[in-house]
Amino acid sequence: MSKILDDYFEPKAVHDHFIELTKLYHPSGEEDSVREYIIQCAKEMEGVEVTYYEPDAKYPGERVIVLRRKGSGKYSGAPYVTLQAHMDMVCSPNKNIFPLNVFGYTDEEGVKWIKAGDKESVFYPEKGTTLGADDGIGLATILAS
């Protein structure tokens, strides 16, 4: 796992899944490696079932994975909570950015940030990526739940 982000990123389970996801090739329409990672994680999680998965699907809306786990304890009868995230990443400037170069930095106000791309992207955004909260970090949060 990444030692660079340990001081920037908690909880650890989210951190660990996120770092693994950044290593996987997953531009839009080519996210099979992420799909396989999610399925493998689901198989290792207690009480999680994959209720829909089309391994050969080719079109958006068909390449969907739904993981379900019933509540436990006093929440055993509660309605499901839905968490959603994209498996793909819009790549900029090209698809050859994997594994992502993820790093942490502290800004001039002391706020800690996580960024992907060239370290110069802190000051020159065009040298970064489109790393967003709707893909890798969303998936990592779901898998850590």
What does this entry show, briefly?
By secondary structure, this protein is an alpha+beta fold. It has helices at 12-23, 32-44, 136-144; strands at residues 48-52, 66-69, 102-106, 112-116. The radius of gyration is 17 Å and the shape is globular.
- Count of strand segments: 4
Structural class: alpha+beta
Q: Which residue ranges are poorly predicted, with pLDDT under 50 across at least 5 consecutive positions?
A: none
Order of SSEs, N→C? Answer: HHEEEEH
Mean pLDDT: 80
Which radius of gyration do the C-alpha atoms yield? 17 Å
What is the helix fraction of residues, given as a range? Answer: 10-25%
Sketch the major β-sheet.
Answer: 2 strands, antiparallel
Strand content: 5-15%
What is the CA–CA distance across the termini?
A: 19 Å
Q: What strand line-up does the widest sheet have?
A: 1-2
Q: Choose one word for the global shape.
A: globular
Number of separate helices: 3
